[in-house]
Amino acid sequence: MSAEEAATYPAVLFFAQAARRVQHSFRLSPADAPAVLCICQLVDGRPLALELAAGWLRVYDCAEIVREIVRSLEFLATELHDVPPRQRSVHITWQHTWALLTPAMQRALAALALFRGPSSWRPRWPWPRHRWWIWPRCWMPR
């Protein structure tokens, strides 16, 4: 896929915008486009994760960022003090959001974690009344 085609995806545009805040000269090049697409896919287009990944452009190139994310999502973190504490890593954000769930919702979400691949709510969702709460909070892809 060309850089021009990649730039039509909202997540790629978001990453590029975040990257320019870190590295003013950043432009989505044909060489970087595959890695940027991969970053976007690895983090499922989540804005905080894209922002944290782009922050690493101070140290790594896009391909290296991909390798680090593949190795561990813990890589998506920052030590910048101007970032609210709960937004300094994807892991901390997940912990914070998990703590907001009721025990029943935590059990429901944990049960869903057992399934791989696409899923519909009907056959696998044991507590449909909780579905409305988890979905809008980005715990599940739409």
- Provide the number of structural domains: 2
In round numbers, the mean pLDDT is 78
Residue runs with pLDDT of under 50 for 5 or more positions: 135-142
Q: How many strands?
A: 0
Give the fraction of residues assigned to helices. Answer: 40-55%
* Structure class: mainly alpha
Characterize the overall form: globular
Number of helices: 9
Strand content: under 5%
The secondary-structure element order is HHHHHHHHH
Distance between the termini: 25 Å
The biggest sheet, with number of strands, parallel, antiparallel or mixed sense and barrel status, is:
none
Radius of gyration: 17 Å
Q: What attributes characterize this protein structure?
A:
142 residues
Task: Outline the structure in words.
The structure is a single chain. With about 140 residues, this protein is an all-alpha fold. It has two domains: about 5-90; about 100-135. About 55% of the residues lie in helices and about 0% in strands. It contains nine helices and no strands. Helix 3 packs parallel to helix 5 (about 60-70). The longest helix is centred in the first third of the chain and has 13 residues, at about 10-20. The radius of gyration is 17 Å and the shape is globular. The two termini are about 25 Å apart. Residues about 135-140 have low confidence and may be disordered.
In short, what is this structure?
The protein is built from 9 helices and no strands.
